[in-house]
Design brief:
This protein has a domain of 133 residues: Up-down Bundle (Four Helix Bundle (Hemerythrin (Met), subunit A)), CATH 1.20.120.80. The N terminus is likely disordered. Helix content is 78%, strand content 0%. The N and C termini lie far apart (70 Å). With 194 residues, it is an all-alpha fold. Helix 1 runs antiparallel to helix 5, helix 1 runs parallel beside helix 6 and helix 5 runs antiparallel to helix 6. 28% of the residues are buried.
């Protein structure tokens, strides 16, 4: 006779997606960006008028489009992880590639925005606001580029039956979601906050 009792007191095992090394890397990045954000706020408090006047040169519409593009990329990557967990590796590849394509679109929009600002003479040394604008968006853009490399590793891993590991997809998604989260804070600080 088999035992059919259900252990009501047993809680499901918690699962931290990815691996600990990626989480430590993400935590370190969040601390560094947190310091950038605090320094930005200190300067903004000291030069409120200058920051508000300079902010008027940014297109809120461009910032919103870039935000929506990165939110869409996070959705694709999250679906890719779900597909990988379900063993649907071809679907996982398609979703991760979709997330990466959104990352490339984000870069194209950012390059357009930068070239527009530079064409108006609003360069890095123009004033403190634009120094922060180029610093924050530039460091973030580097993270997007690194994220695209990481997503490329996830795609290669998903395509190779001998190397497939869900933890690789989870680690890549962890990094990519951090990049998207950072952009949402940057968008709020540079484009929205008055």
């Amino acid at each position: 006779m088999t035992d059919t009792r259900v252990d009501v007191g047993r809680k499901p095992q918690a699962h931290l997606p990815g691996d600990g090394s990626m989480w430590m890397f993400v935590l370190g990045d969040l601390i560094i960006f947190g310091a950038y954000f605090v320094i930005f706020m200190v300067y903004r408090t000291q030069e409120r008028g200058l920051f508000l006047a300079s902010q008027q040169h940014l297109s809120l519409n461009v910032g919103v489009v870039n935000t929506l593009v990165l939110i869409a990329s996070s959705w694709f990557v999250a679906r890719g992880v779900q597909a990988a967990r379900a063993g649907e590796h071809a679907g996982a590849v398609r979703f991760i590639v979709g997330g990466g394509a959104c990352g490339v679109l984000f870069i194209a929009i950012k390059v357009y925005e930068w070239s527009s600002k530079i064409g108006q003479g609003l360069t890095f040394p123009h004033n403190d606001f634009f120094m922060f604008y180029y610093l924050l968006t530039g460091v973030h853009l580097f993270h997007v580029l690194l994220g695209l490399v990481i997503l490329g590793v996830v795609v290669a891993n998903s395509r190779d039956p001998g190397r497939r590991r869900v933890s690789v997809a989870e680690a890549g998604a962890t990094y990519w979601h951090m990049v998207d989260l950072l952009w949402i804070v940057i968008f709020a600080l540079l484009y929205v906050m008055r």
